[in-house]
Amino acid sequence: MKRIVVVAAVLAVSAGAVTAQQDQVKTTQAMMKDNGKNAGALVAMVKGEKPYDQSTVNAAMAQFEETAKKLPTLFPESIKGLKFEGDYSPSSKIWEDKAGFESHIASFAKVVADAKSRIKDLDALKTELTVVGKQCGGCHETYRIKKG
Ligand code: HEC
Fold it and tell me: What pTM was computed for the model?
């Protein structure tokens, strides 16, 4: 009887841990999806599909900054190898080359901070979005895997 209780307790604890990891995965994906949405809104302005709107720019930059701040915590060791829903997964290189990943985050943070202070009109947006986009793409190229 005692043994059953212990086993049940162990199972409960590991189930809790799995849930926490899945939540972490969901948070990470939601954050990246928001980045995608914000980047899309900026691209629409650059293409002339939407009029230039400073508040949309500010909201996007604020969210990129938030992402840069959170990125170091988004891929803890505990989620390594965990299944990500959807089309993308983190590459195992995130954990194998931690220093490289962290230097990518640092460079993304710097570029976003610079861009944020510079984007005041459409011309600046065109220039800066290319620079920021290269940072997103640079990290994805090495550290993100497109499934299937
Ligand atoms: C330092 C690395 C890094 C940077 C910088 C970065 N990303 Fe990501 N991104 C990832 C990783 C790893 C994944 C795969 C895990 C995931 O999907 O959440 C990802 C996934 C995504 C996804 C797919 C989300 C999904 O699961 O459907 C989008 C969209 C995205 N990123 C947009 C962006 C945009 C836009 C930027 C720049 C503003 C950016 N990312 C900057 C690492 C990064």
Answer: 0.89
